[in-house]
Design goal:
With 468 residues, the protein is mainly alpha-helical. Helix content is 73%, strand content 1%.
Length: 468
């Protein structure tokens, strides 16, 4: 089975899982990463799980059968972040609905209406071969029409402004150029994907040579399609940053200036662009407070920054060096906000409360407890990658502060539980339970188990006192 077909089967399988099953998979993958184990092909699963969780949270755009089949060649080049970010050769998934509306309304309205009717009927009849035949013919006509539109827009500024306004996406001109190029190169890129492994664990030696040969068989270096052949390879890499090795191979040197002189210098631009996209994704996930598998994303960002820095001889004052330095600063600034907020979040949950401050039979807010536990876990993850991301001192200081606070606070919480009145007992118990959960993350399960036993003894003492 071709690699693209296997990926599509995987996506279909994951979509059919329940949200709870997906969450369990994500949690297990995160634990695997933090143990220092490689995910291998499972990394592809984790990427898809992140996308599905984001679609579920934000509401993925719904498109009909015709549009879904029409945009299928674009799937390897779609990104899930907002369309205002510029990423080489990529289109935001959220832009597809507007592109389809523009094509159906302003580019080939009669053809679009006819193909939509035929394809919908064919899909309902289960005749996928017929549906695909008419969609391919429509793709060919659209590609020609888009080329005409772009030529006219290049020669007439008024027409260009009108076209961009009609499309309405954040990067309309680039979106149209990408769509036109991918449709024209559809068959070649599909054949290339079919000849690539489902996942390349390490782009080196024979696999590096094979990928370079396949790229140049699909597109001449420096041609319009060359960018998309590079992206096709990157999509199959367990470590996407390794795409830069094609540039080192082509230049016969790891010197950035030499790599930049070759057409494969574009590979470095792609990796920097992808790193920028991932940094934005991390920032958005953390701001939302509902990030999914951010530990895995942080590891990918860390590995990319380290790979660029160690495998390329890149002067800091070069354009690539400045770009990487700027991205590392953005990462540090993004993480600093989360790391600095963590001790305060923990103290708010576990601080001693006077009896008069506690409502009868109340408990800590379970959502706040879960979010704080996730934040503590995330800061612990940051410690693994702190050196490369220039946050080492900050993470060590914050985590030491948390360890000291938990060590001191738990004794007071146990004592408060031991002497709790019936009205305050549930709240005191929820604080101790939360402390046990956080200590499992910070000190390990053995420590948490001992604390849990101490909590049981304290609660038993409380019940005896109540009976007395």
């Amino acid at each position: 089975m071709a690699g693209a077909d296997r990926i599509e089967r995987l996506q279909l399988f994951l979509r059919e899982l329940s949200p709870q099953a997906r969450s369990m998979l994500i949690a297990e993958f995160e634990r695997t990463l933090l143990r220092g184990e490689e995910l291998g092909s499972a990394d592809l699963v984790l990427q898809e799980l992140r996308r599905l969780a984001r679609d579920q949270r934000e509401g993925a755009p719904r498109v009909g059968h015709s549009a879904r089949l029409f945009f299928k060649p674009l799937e390897p080049f779609l990104v899930d972040d907002p369309g205002q970010h510029r990423h080489l050769g990529r289109i935001s998934r959220s832009s597809l609905d507007m592109l389809w509306t523009w094509i159906s309304r302003d580019v080939l309205p009669d053809d679009a209406t006819a193909v939509d009717k035929i394809v919908n009927a064919a899909v309902l009849d289960g005749d996928t071969e017929k549906a695909n035949y008419f969609v391919r013919a429509f793709q060919d006509r659209v590609a020609v029409a888009l080329a005409d539109q772009l030529r006219s827009a290049d020669n007439d500024d008024k027409m260009r402004r009108r076209m961009l306004a009609q499309i309405g996406t954040q990067r309309a001109g680039e979106d149209v150029a990408t769509l036109k190029c991918v449709l024209n190169a559809r068959d070649g890129l599909s054949a290339m994907g079919a000849n690539l492994p489902l996942q390349v664990g390490n782009l080196a030696a024979k696999q590096l040579d094979d990928c370079k040969t396949l790229i140049e068989k699909t597109a001449a270096p420096g041609s319009e399609v060359f960018l998309y052949s590079l992206l096709t390879v990157m999509n199959r890499l367990s470590a996407p940053w390794q795409l830069i090795r094609l540039g080192v191979k082509a230049a016969g040197s790891d010197t950035a200036a030499r790599v930049a002189e070759t057409p494969y210098g574009m590979a470095v631009n792609i990796v920097l662009s992808e790193l920028e996209r991932q940094v934005g994704e991390l920032r958005d996930d953390l701001r939302s407070g509902r990030g999914v598998a951010v530990g895995a994303l942080l590891k990918t960002i860390h590995d990319s920054a380290r790979g660029l820095r160690t495998e390329l001889n890149m002067p800091m004052d070069s354009s690539w060096g400045r770009a990487l330095s700027g991205l590392r600063s953005q990462i540090g600034d993004t993480l600093r906000l989360e790391i600095d907020s963590m001790p305060g979040r923990v103290r708010r949950l576990l601080k001693p409360r006077a009896v008069g401050e506690i409502r009868a039979n109340s408990t800590l807010d379970p959502t706040e407890v879960t979010e704080t536990e996730a934040l503590v876990t995330f800061v612990g993850t940051c410690r693994h990658f702190a050196g490369e991301l220039a946050i080492n001192e900050m993470t060590q200081r914050t985590f030491s502060e948390l360890q000291q606070y938990l060590d001191n606070a738990t004794r007071g919480l146990l004592e408060a539980l031991r002497h709790a009145t019936p009205n305050e007992r549930s709240f005191r118990q929820s604080q101790v339970d939360t402390a046990v959960r956080l200590c499992a993350t910070v000190f390990g399960r053995d420590y948490a188990a001992q604390l849990g036993k101490a909590a049981e003894i304290a609660a038993a003492g409380d019940r005896k006192a109540a009976r007395g």
